[in-house]
Amino acid sequence: MLTVLFGEIGIGKSTLGKKLSKKTGIKFVDGVEFLPDNLDRQLSSGIPLTKNDVDEFVIENLIPGIQKEYRKNGTLIVAQDLYLKRHRDLINATFGIKNVRFVWLPVHSIRTQISRLKNRTKSWLWILNAILSKYWFEKPKYSTAFEIRNDFDVTLLCDKLLIDKENGNII
After folding, report:
1. Using one digit for the tens of pLDDT, what is the confidence trace for 63-82?
2. Among positive and negative, which fits the CA dihedral 25, 98, 140, 128?
3. If you write DSSP's letter for every residue of 118-134 in order, what string do you get?
């Protein structure tokens, strides 16, 4: 099973991914690890990414990176912004809709989001450009997205991951 934590920048996808990994023993990968140097430099220099840049990243870097880690581990938790529905659809098409669980982390507090971003090691220009892209975000409209609203939802998700792992619900 591939569990994809998605939502806007600075809402806790990586923090949740690490917590879930620790509790379940399922490997966690932060999607930003697959960001190529040229796009990282572009963001750091204050040049926003275009939708074409993001499409290229998802198709040429993110999905192949996830495939490589998924083949090694058989199950995986990934955190990535995935602002556009077509990118989530590509992941479903690549891994099979029955093998993917999307977990949406909505923004509950702009204040919390900003305070989390202050702790990032990336440059402020990088973070600013990432925030500016939030107007692209397409909220999920389908029932396969599990929404995290509180700690109880985190516990439920952990339980689902452990049950999947025990039942061998992996490729």
Report:
1. 999 999 998 887 888 888 77
2. positive
3. HT-SS-HHHHHHHHHGG
Please state, in angstroms and as integers, the Cα–Cα distance from residue 119 to each residue in 12, 17, 94, following that order: 12, 17, 34
pTM above 0.90, yes or no: no
Per-residue model confidence as pLDDT tens digits over 110-138: 777 777 777 766 666 666 766 666 666 77
For the stretch 145-152, contacts whose Cβ atoms lie closer than 8 Å and that sit 24 or more positions apart, written own/partner, are 145/102, 145/103, 145/104, 146/101, 146/102, 146/103, 146/104, 147/103, 147/104, 147/105, 147/106, 148/16, 148/103, 148/104, 148/105, 148/106, 149/106, 149/108
157 burial level (CB within 10 Å; 0-12, 13-18, 19+)? buried
* Rounded Cα distance, 45 and 82, in Å: 22
